[in-house]
Specification:
elongated, mainly alpha
Length: about 70
Amino acid sequence: MKSVLSIKIEKSLIQQIKEFCQMHGLKQGFFVEKAIKSQLEREEMIEDIVELKELRSQEKLAVPFDEYLKKKKS
């Protein structure tokens, strides 16, 4: 299901989008939706990388999984 999102964008950017879509035979809505999805994926990846870097220092404290399971069963 699709919904409408109303946002304010600089006129020059709107013109660039229109021209790009026209030159490449794309619908503007499709292009903007794809761009937003792509940016969200990049932002999530950045968050994951930051979290990985923060947790890397704890890696040396990690216990092998089978060892963890043995302790849990005891």
